[in-house]
Amino acid sequence: MSLVSPTAAIAWRRALEAWAIPETILEKAPESPWGFPVELFARRAEHAATRSTPSNARALEALPVSGSVLDVGCGAGAASMPLTVRAKALVGVDPSPAMLEAFLSQAGAAGVDVEVVEGTWPDASARTPSADVVVCHHVLYNVAPLPAFVRALTEHGRRRVILELTAEHPLSVDNDLWLRFHGLRRPTGPTADDVVAVLREAGVQPEREAWVSESVAGFSRREDLVAWIRRRLCLPPERDPEVDEALSGRIVEREGGFGFPPRDVVTLWWDRSKTEGTVPYAAHDR
Ligand SMILES: C[S@@+](CC[C@H](N)C(=O)[O-])C[C@H]1O[C@@H](n2cnc3c(N)ncnc32)[C@H](O)[C@@H]1O
């Protein structure tokens, strides 16, 4: 049991809490600013299936032929679909039924055995089977109880766990827009370095590779991308033209779709064999 006070874990939780939107802004928002568009993540999964990335390479080197992959926070499966060149079975966990439907459809097209678990990790972990490799891409900045989340990932991976995340909080790209439309200064942290600090505190020593990810042109219509950002800013639809104008320098049109410029990401991974015997956060697991 770790006797060290989990200061990195507490700092992580506090840094995420600082992203709460002030009630005065939230109560005027005509639609929820949270949530992920399924269209964007379905395109991400389709695009990912054709790409080789450091995250995919690390997963494939640990994955046995006809092995199994657990994808936590799967969305439409951008983390696991590229692994179907070797995997025979996929399990996807996500709280969103629409995402799970998209995941099932992608896995069906890839011709692998597939199972989905609707729920939030780590609560859903007790009803989720283990796999050879566990992947979890672009989920951690949604997760306040990071130690418990990571421990359940480790427990479910027979060989390796691979995380992918942006180097900085993904919503920090909107910070200048919050200042412009609401006069509100948003946080900048936490960052991938803070994830590493939480992992180390939990007894996991991850390997790490930093790289630049081409972001997917995930919207077939520019106006849908603009509306998504406008919703994130808690603004009504009539503000779309102003948001479009504010975004004009950073929307990228590519492959018949619209998206954002490339961004810095980090792949973190660790092998189960190297964590055996550690009991991360037994006493502080919140
Ligand atoms: C940014 S998307 C990433 C989806 C996919 N991994 C990818 O890289 O395209 C985050 C996904 O994580 C899911 N999610 C958020 N918090 C979660 C949690 N605690 N447990 C499981 N899934 C979660 C969301 O519903 C969403 O589908």
Structural commentary:
The structure is a single chain. The protein is an alpha/beta fold and 286 residues long. Helices cover 34% and strands 20% of the residues. The protein has a single domain, classed as 3-Layer(aba) Sandwich (Rossmann fold). A 7-stranded mixed β-sheet has the order 3-2-1-4-5-9-6. Strand 2, helix 5 (97-110) and strand 3 (113-118) form a beta-alpha-beta unit. Helix 1 (7-17) packs antiparallel against helix 8. The longest helix is centred in the middle third of the chain and has 14 residues, at 97-110. It is globular, with a radius of gyration of 19 Å. The model is unreliable at 279-286 (pLDDT under 50). Bound molecules: S-adenosylmethionine.
Looking at this structure, what is the CATH superfamily? Vaccinia Virus protein VP39
Largest sheet: 7 strands, mixed
- Structural class of the secondary structure composition? alpha/beta
- Structural shape: globular
Unreliably modeled segments: 279-286
What would you report as the Rg, rounded to the nearest angstrom?
19 Å
What can be said about this structure in brief?
The protein is 34% helix and 20% strand.
Features:
single chain; 286 residues; alpha/beta; Rossmann fold; seven-stranded mixed sheet; 10 helices; 9 strands; 34% helix; disordered C terminus; binds S-adenosylmethionine
Give the helix/strand layout.
Elements: H1 7-17, H2 23-26, H3 38-48, H4 54-62, E1 68-72, E2 89-94, H5 97-110, E3 113-118, E4 131-137, H6 146-156, E5 157-166, H7 175-182, H8 192-201, E6 207-213, H9 222-232, H10 240-247, E7 252-254, E8 257-259, E9 263-271
Parallel strand pairs: 1-2, 1-4, 2-3, 4-5
Antiparallel strand pairs: 5-9, 6-9, 7-8
Helix pairs in contact: 1-8, 3-5, 9-10
Bound molecules: S-adenosylmethionine.
